[in-house]
Amino acid sequence: MTAELVRGQNHPLSQIRLTVRISAGVPVLAGATLGDENGTVPGPQWVAHPGAPDLPGVEVPRQTAAEHRLAVDLGALPEAVHRVGVFLALPTGPAGPLRFGAVAAPHTTVDGPDGTEIVSYTLTGLDTETAVVALELYRRQGAWKIRATGQGYAAGLPALLADQGLPESADLVATIQRTPAPAPAPPLPAPTPAPGPGTPTHSYAPQLPEPAPSYETQSPYDVQNPYDTQAPGAAPADPEAPRTPGAPVDYTHPRRRPPGTAQSPAPATDAATDDRPAQPVAGDAVGWSMEERLYNQVWGMFEDLARTTAAYRSAVEFADSRLERELDQALADPGSRLGAAGDTAREAAHARRTQLIDQARAVLDRDLAQLSAESDVVEPALPPAYARWDNPVWHGYRVPDEEPMALRLGDLHLPESKPLRIPMLVRLPLERGLWLDSGPGNAHGVPDSAELRHLAMEAAVALAARLLAVHPPGGFALQVIDPAGAGAAALGVLTRTGVLAMPPATGAAGVTEVLERLTRRVDLVQMAVRGGTPESLPPDVDTAQQLLIVNDFPHGFDDRAVTRLRYLADEGPAVGVHLLLVADREDAAAYGPLLDPLWRSLMRLTPVADDHLADPWVGHAWTYEPSLVPAGSQIVQHVLTEAAEARGKYK
After folding, report:
1. Which residues of 28-52 are buried (b: 16+ CB within 10 A; e: fewer)?
2. Which of 48, 353, 497, 561 could tie 640 with a disulfide, CB 3.0–4.6 Å?
3. Percent of the chain whose pLDDT exceeds 90
4. Cα 592 from Cα 212, distance rounded (Å)
5. Environment class of residue 450 by beta-carbon count within 10 Å: exposed (0-12), middle (13-18) or buried (19+)?
6. Is-above-0.70 flag for pTM?
7. In whole angstroms, what separates CA 208 from the centre of its chain?
8. What is the pLDDT of residue 389?
9. Mean pLDDT rounded to a whole number for the chain
């Protein structure tokens, strides 16, 4: 049965040889981009277009037309290719339409080699766009999927290619736009029938509107690409067996088997017919190190969860709008409004809505199951900087020799996938300060505001402890401003272990002294960097990165102190001075709009779960949960003691 996709929805592919059919109603250009695992198109030679229609694994038409056929052989793509984007563009010139919104919505269909429709997608909602990425075929966990993208660009092909990382695409766009209009031609031929039992399966020459070489044709990629994989249908190679000289190298993960299969080599079967999800593998992403691969894998999981949830919500919205339209049509006829005919029409409309939503939910549940399986593998493999405090990796903690590339601030989830948590990772060094909101607006089940302020301070201490623990000795220092001493209980673990550069500053004098010292450090480092003499800093300037924790802001701050704090928030991150405010914005109402720029410059976090992190790309509001230490755990005490001892030896 054909899967009718909505924008953002994906679908697994059980075939590797595909035909993409496009019906636009008006002559359009059709092409494809080949991207790496990050979706980046490295150069013009990775773009299949009418001027260069043949790439390994992809063949596109040579002319503008209202209907197109593109041939894709996923098994023939270079190993470095992880994404194939099918794009459409309106030809330039006074004769054609100026935007997709002025013509009928383009329709796309993906067929298997026997002509069976796999998925279809209608690109609705286009307006001023002149170029659009219709579909994306992408490789995830060793399996290929297709996504209904529908991403349009009002600036046309230059914006589309630039968005995919292709530099200096003006010459390529000019070549594509010179594509000639088609001469009158007979209707498109039917798809090539499936090969019979005695037909060789190694060649693939789909019937295109114009002559095109088959995938057996020699191309420059056949010589230059060292990542040739084994032929479809061949048995998996034994990783321990010696390789025959001159034979293709098999880069398949030796333990990457579909669930339920044995670890020994399986009988020779066509892998394209196995639509079971691949076995998740921790670190199965692009990167130079395991840390970078895990970071990219976590963000890949985040993107997959965002897209599959967006597709589900879009499907529900479509089902609701269609139900409303069908009910309006049923009620428009007075003759059928009442009686058995009206009841039957309404029941049928509700049944169709339920069917659409059930189908969408089944797809969402399938994707969530795969992401949950991946999370179960990835979470235990995370390094300390990425791991929760209850991860066993902390029990074997050792002070690192170098700074990590990212830090875990907490967990993210969506209402449709509450059991699934995605780590919220941010790159280091921090580009902006953090604000732990202790306001009552986040108190879901918290008894009173005092308890909420205490929870906010505990969350701040947990973040500070993590930052200190994942940096090498002498590379990071903590300073605290607690004007009224209200955070003494939460700060106890920092003072007991001796990891603070100096005791928490209290009172107006303490606030002034800490801010003056850090402001001086920022000024001196900026001047040294600008002058090209960073080694000329005075000996009393601590060159380690600094984290300043401010509790109960703005209590204890006069106008001068507030100005200095704003200066540190704006200029500090570039020279290694970072802020972590624990504050209730309503408490600062007396300052009026003076502090609004400060709040906007900080990343707002909450001490309890709260759905405040907006994702404008897919329209989600993610629920954030802080990464807190389990009740009764002494792991932070242990970790900070190790860090303090290492810092003492470093000095």
Report:
1. bbbbbbbbbbebebeebebbbbbbb
2. 497
3. 41
4. 69
5. exposed
6. no
7. 36
8. 94
9. 81
Evaluate whether 59 touches 71 at the Cβ level (below 8 Å): yes
* Separation of alpha carbons 35 and 87, rounded Å: 13
pLDDT in tens, 271-305: 444 445 567 888 888 888 899 999 999 999 998 99
In the chain the first and final C-alpha atoms are separated, in Å, by 69
CA atoms within 13 A on the CB side of 274: 19
Please work out, in degrees rounded to the nearest 5, the angle formed at the alpha carbon of residue 146 by the alpha carbons of 144 and 152: 140
Q: How far, in Å, CA of 310 to CA of 279, rounded? A: 25
pLDDT at 174: 86
Residue type, 92: T
**Please, which residues bridge with residue 22 across strands?**
68, 108
User: How does strand 434-437 pair with strand 603-605?
Assistant: parallel
- Give me 36's structure tokens: 């790496």
Residue 185 main-chain phi, psi, to 5 deg: -140, 155
Q: Are the CB atoms for 290 and 300 separated by under 8 Å?
A: no
Burial 498-533 (b: 16+ CB within 10 A, else e): ebbeeebbbeeebbbebbebbbebbebbeebeeeee
pLDDT of residue 441: 64
Which is nearest to 25 in space by CA: 94, 86, 100?
A: 100
* Confidence (pLDDT) at 215: 32
What are the tokens at 467?
């930052």
Contact 176, 162 (CB under 8 A): no
Per-residue pLDDT tens for 193-225? 444 433 333 333 333 333 333 333 333 333 333
Measured CA to CA, the distance from residue 318 to residue 121 in angstroms comes to 14
User: By the 8 A CB rule, do 641 and 497 touch?
Assistant: yes
Q: Provide DSSP, 190-230.
A: PPPPPP-TTS--S------SS----TTS--HHHHH-----P
Cα(392)–Cα(380) distance, integer angstroms: 8
Q: Is pLDDT at 32 greater than 70 in this prediction?
A: yes
Q: Confidence band (pLDDT; 50, 70, 90) for 246?
A: very low
SS3 string of 518-560? HHHHHHHHHHHHHCCCHHHCCCCCCCCEEEEEEEEECCCCCHH
The alpha carbon of residue 329 and the mean position of all alpha carbons in its chain are separated, in whole angstroms, by 41
| Each residue's pLDDT tens digit, 422-435 | 999 999 999 999 99
Give the pLDDT mean for 446-468: 88
